[in-house]
Design a protein that fits this description.
Number of domains: 2
Strand order of the largest sheet: 5-6-7-8-9
CATH architecture of the largest domain: 2-Layer Sandwich
Protein name: Nitrite reductase
Keywords: Coiled coil, Iron, Iron-sulfur, Metal-binding
Order of helices and strands: EHEEHEEHHEEEEHHH
Shape: globular
Low-confidence stretches: none
Helix content: 25-40%
Oligomer: single chain
CATH superfamily of the largest domain: Sulfite Reductase Hemoprotein, domain 1
Number of helices: 7
Length: about 210
């Protein structure tokens, strides 16, 4: 009997990513005592259980408003701020749309994408592979952040002052370019250094 993993999140709302007590209780009862739960550093719960139960369990978890994503070498669900400036000002609806577009895409290595609704950057977008920062009515996009080091690397500004549609197109292009040109298991920041920011900008401009 094989074991398989999938990821679970509660979705977005003002105040941050919140798991309700009843969701936690039902999560435990649905997956059963033989399953394993791992808390990741990108606000997902990895659930591991018997392969034959996967689809049934996914349906039951979706019924209690938990979002289900693939685990492994994929783009992770969007890591967001707490929308402390409110849903409209911080762009909650845009963040949800961005998450729907990017989450679960196969990539050479896992890709973490951060979203901040203002320059406070409480979701630490400059420490993510791709960081999106809402600056009033436009967006800045950063690439190549790396937190796992004694000397963390901040992401570099890739493009500034784009609207929501242009932001989502650019993020989609970044992921696709990494899909097509990244080496197996190559981390996104190393990929950026290997190809250079200039070449990346040139490639995405076409």
């Amino acid at each position: 009997m094989g074991m398989m993993k999938f990821a679970v999140t509660p979705g977005f709302e003002v105040g941050g990513t919140i798991l309700k007590p009843e969701q936690l209780a039902l999560l435990g009862s649905i997956i059963g005592e033989n399953a394993k739960i791992e808390l990741t550093n990108f606000k997902q719960l990895y659930v591991e259980l018997e392969e034959e139960r996967i689809e049934e369990v996914k349906r039951e978890l979706a019924a209690i408003e938990l979002e289900i994503y693939p685990a492994g070498f994929v783009t992770k669900s969007l890591i967001t701020c707490n929308f402390c400036r409110g849903a409209e000002d911080a762009g909650l609806a845009i963040a949800e749309k961005l998450n729907d577009m990017i989450a679960g895409i196969p990539t050479p290595s896992p890709v973490k994408i951060g979203y901040a609704g203002c320059a406070l950057g409480t979701s630490e977008p400059l420490l993510k592979d791709i960081g999106v920062v809402k600056m009033r009515d436009t967006f800045d996009i950063y690439v190549g952040g790396e937190p796992k080091s004694l000397k963390p690397t901040f992401a570099e500004l890739f493009i500034t002052g784009v609207n929501a549609e242009q932001m989502m197109i650019t993020v989609d292009k970044l992921i696709t370019y990494f899909q097509m040109n990244g080496k197996n298991k190559e981390k996104f920041p190393k990929f950026i250094k290997r190809i250079s920011m200039d070449k990346l900008r040139e490639a995405l401009a076409n």
